[in-house]
From TrEMBL:
Protein name: Putative Catechol-2,3-dioxygenase
Assigned keywords, A-Z: Dioxygenase, Oxidoreductase
Record organism: Mesorhizobium metallidurans STM 2683
Domain VOC per the UniProt entry, residue ranges: 12-126, 182-300
E.C. designation(s): 1.13.11.2
UniProt xrefs under InterPro entries: Glyas_Bleomycin-R_OHBP_Dase (IPR029068), Glyas_Fos-R_dOase_dom (IPR004360), VOC_core (IPR037523)
PROSITE patterns: VOC
GO terms, molecular function: catechol 2,3-dioxygenase activity
């Protein structure tokens, strides 16, 4: 692919819109535990974020929770910029007795939970300074090498007790989340990731990262953020379609540096005969499995 057909490295993810069964029931987790402030709430939608910046928009009206192995959202990842902030979220999850998991991916450390509507949530702290290299073995599996020479699967459990040592007695754990938190990536379950990658790479212009059938993960991004949009096939034959009226992904947002960048994507969509709806400020498109993406220029 020619460089002019690639998304700019400064492309980032904007607000992620999620369907939920009931906004008042969803807010205690998203607001009090995850730590997002309510920026607006009209009853039908609730805009949540940090320091006035929208990160998550909840849409009421789902009639059933998203089943655990549905093709749709796996999780949306809110990234924090310090390990202490990750520890604060871990402490709030524990204090609220919210069921959660924790993994050490070597390139990041992550906490996992789900809201009452089954929408997966990751709180992620990037740790690129620990990572040296990755290799794909003959069977297609991925092996990670740390800077100290140790090998990692990227799926080791995160030591929560050690993480909580980041906090001292003077550190409060109460919300809100730090003002520099941001949406770092979004991860879906997929039926045909190869077809999806042909769209995200060949049409939209993302760059490939991990493309492994044996590992079950396909992702893409930019040189600046390689893991931005991801798909997994871990549910295998148990993967089902989300039932009508279920919670899950309404749409996610990609923010491009300029209107010229957005026009270039629109042109590639036309050349690929992919239906899209364009307004003066937005470009709405669905990927081959129906996940909806809104592209917009920075400043809009």
């Amino acid at each position: 692919m020619k460089s002019e057909d690639l998304l700019a490295n400064t492309t980032r993810l904007g607000p992620v819109h999620l369907r939920v069964i009931d906004i008042p029931a969803a807010l205690p987790l998203w607001r009090d535990v995850i730590g997002l402030a309510v920026l607006a709430n009209d009853g039908g939608t609730a805009d949540l974020g940090v320091d006035g910046k929208s990160l998550i928009v909840l849409h009421a009206g789902a009639t059933t929770a998203l089943p655990p192995k549905s093709r749709d959202l796996f999780h949306v990842a809110v990234h924090v910029t310090t390990r202490k902030e990750l520890a604060r979220v871990a402490a709030r999850l524990g204090a609220a007795r919210v069921k959660h998991g924790a993994q050490d991916h070597l390139v990041s450390e992550s906490l996992y939970a789900s809201d009452l509507s089954g929408n997966g949530i990751e709180i992620c702290f990037d740790t690129p300074d620990r990572f040296a290299s990755s290799t794909v073995t003959a069977d297609g599996s991925v092996s990670l090498l740390a800077r100290d020479g140790s090998a990692h699967s990227g799926l080791e459990p995160l030591d929560l007790d050690r993480l909580l040592l980041e906090l001292d007695t003077a550190d409060g754990i109460e919300a809100p989340l730090a003002a520099d938190a941001f949406i770092g990536h979004i991860h879906m379950r997929a039926r045909s990731p190869e077809t999806l990658m042909a769209f995200y790479l060949g049409v939209l212009g993302f760059k490939p990262h991990i493309q492994s059938t044996s590992f079950g993960l396909f992702d893409c991004g930019t040189d600046e953020r390689r893991h931005m949009v991801a798909f997994n096939i871990w549910a295998g034959a148990e993967l089902t379609e989300p039932p009508p009226g279920s919670a899950g992904l309404e749409h996610f947002t990609a923010v491009l540096p300029s209107q010229e960048d957005m026009a270039a994507v629109a042109q590639r969509l036309r050349h690929a005969n992919v239906p899209a709806r364009q307004t003066e400020r937005t470009l709405d498109v669905s990927d081959p499995e129906g996940n909806r993406l809104r592209m917009m220029a920075a400043g809009d």
